[in-house]
């Protein structure tokens, strides 16, 4: 059994997702939603779990090759035996048009085909129940097996002899076999042709979606894979976008920094829709705007949590489960996230900035109206009130409360964008109100966060500590990249937070001690800042280095070890994939160079 690692390939359809390892084994999938109970829990259950996976074992296995079908999240794994026999496995989650809507069931399709020789295989399907505590109970029929998982009942429909599956019998693969692991309902067609047709239509859907993206000239494959995976992190039913597909992969070994990222952070989703908007992926933007409008209505101008459930749930309280051993045996394994209790005032800017696009963007099916602007003003009012109040900051400190510069700057951005939107909508009086408020916040930041003796900004009002988020002052338009104050801030960050090619969020001890791994998204921020400071060759060099750290699936987790380059933290991390897209767009040659 392969030791758990993050060299995993996600598949999904914007309703369900799974992570598959290099051997073609499902090791992680949750139901009925991404934040639900794990159906496949092996990733979180030590080195040799007895259940929580779905694999295909080949007699005399010698070699495994794996790659995505071009421009899709359909995964192809080829197993080759010592005698040359070979098997192809195709894994996907169906997604395609059907009956004037998008068909995206809570289901996975798997096709196993003989390629060469007379391969002998064993299919082992062992879903979990009760958060990995036990194998799911099962019942069998003539052509199906039912699995009573927690939160969902799955049915495997197959043209493979059912007893081959239930007995995990070694057998000769002499013809293609189809498996549909989905809802507990009848499969209304021949499973072999049905799964094959769903695969063909799913491939066609994704290739059509990718074909409509506006890509940079350079690094197109990296951008395409990042974009597809970001889409897989969207819960299409509500418009939510989760931060990652996993929970409790530690930020570094035995750190206790094991968090559940299967929820929708307003901050993370803001960065995701901005990145995808650069590629023209308006479908995800528009769906997320609906999610945000529902949050705005529910808040009524009051407190907004930094994170919600994909179904807009407020109550995602954090708890620890003891039924699994944890990633590589590292506990705790957390469900829920305490950040829902935090004050993080940057969220008000991260609500306003995506929503104001609806007042300008003529592509949208639902453009923003004056009534939407007035509803959004309530969020702006909250931003103005909270801009100089202490919070936990974007790094979600659990025992440290300060007036964080980044949070205050995002409140400024909320007021600034509301002023511009009001002017665009012909609301001159409201535009003046929001301009005045933006001016007040700017003056406060420049007075309280600026350090005259060093000519730079600090990470908090009255504080001298550094924080990589100060690099975002240019991104939101608070400072010009060549403003001497920002240049000095950049220089200090490079001096104190950069370790090798990587950037740390901060280096001061926090609630759990000193950080030991770099934060991938911050390294991408640093790459952008290098380019803005005229050091483009260095920026491209570090960007190429970051691309080389990706998994075989072309993806990144949240963190990376400086000494070993090993990936840590939840996976695939939307922040990190946003960085891939943003830097590729920024650093690429122009299309006019080649046409």
What key attributes describe this structure?
595 residues; alpha+beta; 8-stranded antiparallel sheet; 4-stranded antiparallel sheet; 14 helices; 22% strand
Question: How would you describe this protein?
Answer:
With 595 residues, this protein is α+β, with helices and mostly antiparallel strands. It has 14 helices and 32 strands. The protein has an 8-stranded antiparallel sheet, covered by helices on one side. The protein has a 4-stranded antiparallel sheet with strand order 1-2-3-4, with no helix packed on it. Strands 5-12-18 form a 3-stranded antiparallel sheet. The mean pLDDT is 96.
Terminal Cα separation, in Å? 50 Å
Give average pLDDT, whole number: 96
Please count the helical segments. 14
Provide the helix percentage: 25-40%
User: By helix and strand content, what is the structural category?
Assistant: alpha+beta
Strand content: 15-25%
- How would a crystallographer describe the biggest sheet? 8 strands, antiparallel
Radius of gyration: 25 Å
Low-confidence stretches: none
């Amino acid at each position: 059994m392969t030791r758990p690692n993050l060299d995993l390939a996600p598949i999904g359809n914007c309703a369900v997702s799974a992570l598959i390892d290099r051997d073609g084994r499902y090791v992680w999938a949750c139901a009925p939603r991404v934040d639900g109970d794990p159906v496949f829990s092996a990733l979180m259950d030590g080195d040799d779990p007895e259940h929580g996976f779905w694999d295909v074992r080949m007699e005399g296995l010698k070699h495994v090759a794996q790659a995505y079908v071009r421009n899709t999240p359909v995964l192809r794994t080829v197993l080759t035996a010592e005698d040359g026999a070979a098997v192809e496995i195709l894994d996907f989650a169906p997604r395609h048009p059907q009956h004037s809507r998008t068909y995206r069931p809570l289901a996975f399709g798997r096709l196993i085909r003989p390629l060469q020789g007379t391969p002998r295989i064993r299919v082992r399907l062992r879903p979990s129940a009760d958060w990995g505590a036990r194998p799911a109970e099962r019942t069998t029929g003539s052509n199906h097996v039912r699995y009573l998982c927690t939160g969902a009942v799955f049915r495997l429909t197959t043209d493979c002899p059912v007893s081959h599956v239930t007995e995990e019998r070694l057998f000769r693969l002499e013809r293609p076999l189809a498996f549909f692991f989905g809802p507990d309902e009848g499969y209304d067609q021949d499973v072999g042709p049905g799964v094959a047709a769903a695969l063909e239509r799913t491939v066609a859907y994704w290739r059509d979606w990718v074909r409509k993206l506006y890509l940079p000239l350079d690094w197109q494959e990296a951008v395409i894979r990042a974009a597809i995976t970001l889409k897989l992190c969207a819960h299409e039913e509500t418009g939510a976008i989760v931060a990652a597909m996993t929970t409790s992969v530690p930020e570094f070994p035995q750190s206790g920094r094991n968090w559940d990222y299967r929820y929708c952070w307003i901050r993370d989703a803001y960065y995701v829709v901005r990145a995808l908007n650069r590629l023209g992926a308006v479908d995800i933007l528009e769906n997320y705007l609906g999610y945000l409008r529902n949050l705005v209505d529910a808040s009524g101008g009051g407190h907004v949590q930094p994170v919600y459930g994909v179904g807009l749930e407020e109550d995602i309280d954090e708890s620890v489960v003891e039924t699994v051993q944890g990633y590589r045996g590292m506990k705790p394994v957390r469900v829920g996230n305490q950040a829902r209790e935090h004050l993080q005032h940057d969220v008000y800017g991260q609500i306003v900035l995506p929503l104001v696009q609806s007042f300008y963007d003529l592509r949208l099916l639902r453009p923003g109206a004056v009534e939407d602007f007035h509803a959004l003003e309530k969020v702006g009012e909250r931003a103005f009130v909270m801009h100089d109040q202490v919070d936990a900051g974007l790094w979600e400190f659990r025992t440290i409360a300060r007036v964080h510069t980044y949070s205050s700057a995002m409140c400024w951005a909320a007021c600034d964008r509301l002023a511009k939107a009001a002017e665009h909508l012909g609301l001159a009086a409201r535009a003046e109100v929001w301009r005045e408020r933006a001016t007040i916040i700017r003056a406060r930041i420049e007075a309280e966060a600026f350090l005259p003796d060093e000519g730079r900004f600090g990470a908090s009002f009255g504080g001298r500590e550094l924080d990589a988020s100060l690099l975002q002052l240019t991104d939101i338009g608070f400072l010009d990249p060549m403003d001497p104050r920002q240049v000095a801030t950049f220089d200090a960050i490079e001096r104190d937070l950069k370790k090798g090619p990587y950037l740390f969020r901060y280096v001061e001890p926090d609630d759990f001690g000193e950080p030991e791994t770099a934060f991938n998204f911050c390294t991408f921020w640093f790459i952008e800042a290098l380019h803005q400071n005229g050091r483009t060759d260095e920026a491209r060099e570090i960007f190429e280095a970051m691309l080389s750290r990706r998994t075989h699936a072309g993806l990144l987790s949240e963190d990376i070890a400086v000494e070993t380059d090993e990936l840590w933290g939840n996976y695939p991390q939307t922040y990190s994939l946003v960085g891939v897209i943003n830097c590729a767009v920024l650093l690429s040659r122009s299309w006019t160079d080649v046409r």
